[in-house]
Amino acid sequence: MDIKEKTSRSSNPIKFTLFKEGLFYKCYNEDAMVFFENIKEYKVNSKYIKSMNDTVLTLGFPKSQWTNDGRSYDFLNKLGTQNSEENDLFIEFSLNSDVKNNFNTFKSKIISERQRAISNAIVTPPEENIINKIKSYDLANRTPLQAMQFIQELKEIIA
Fold this sequence. Notes:
Layout: H1 3-10, E1 15-21, E2 24-28, H2 29-38, E3 45-49, E4 54-62, E5 81-86, E6 90-95, H3 103-121, H4 126-136, H5 144-158
Antiparallel strand pairs: 1-2, 1-6, 2-4, 3-4, 5-6
């Protein structure tokens, strides 16, 4: 099952789908929002998918958090789920009400938070840092030994 099929399945307003991916359950887009807002506030990731020309939201958690017997879906009672369908690829629940409205607002919020985190994490590249150190170094008022120590510091930054 590819990403397009998974996101298509998650857009169904009366279904909630958890996909089985290795040792994890994963939900996409609308289902990730539903899980985050109604069950547990796990980290929601966003990734631009070129083949879809869109950003996809994902949320995952270990199967071990499901329950010991793997068949008890107690934490989904908060959603008012009725019956479920399970196969090798996913578990799908029927919802009593449409809890998937406001997805576009949620998606915009997640994407903007991620962009803000990325821009805050950007640091000065080492090359620019070295150039700034050289430009600000007052060579005229340094001894030859201090100048050699400065060069050694620059070498350590590069290494």
